[in-house]
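To fix ideas, we close by showing one paired sequence and structure record:
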Amino acid sequence: MIGWDMGAALALAEALGVPAVVAAELLPPIEAVMVSKINEQMDSAHGGETG
């Protein structure tokens, strides 16, 4: 899984004017979609092979 820093994500959200409580609520589902899409791209790039 791709590592990320919640503090950095919240700081970015704050800089964009997004309240921290909203960002904290939205970031986990966004991360789940990002990981899923990255995995799909990696699978297609490797012909569906794992490992």
Remarks:
- The chain has a mean pLDDT of 84.
- DSSP finds two helices and no strands in the chain.
- Residues 30 and 37 are 11 Å apart (CA to CA).
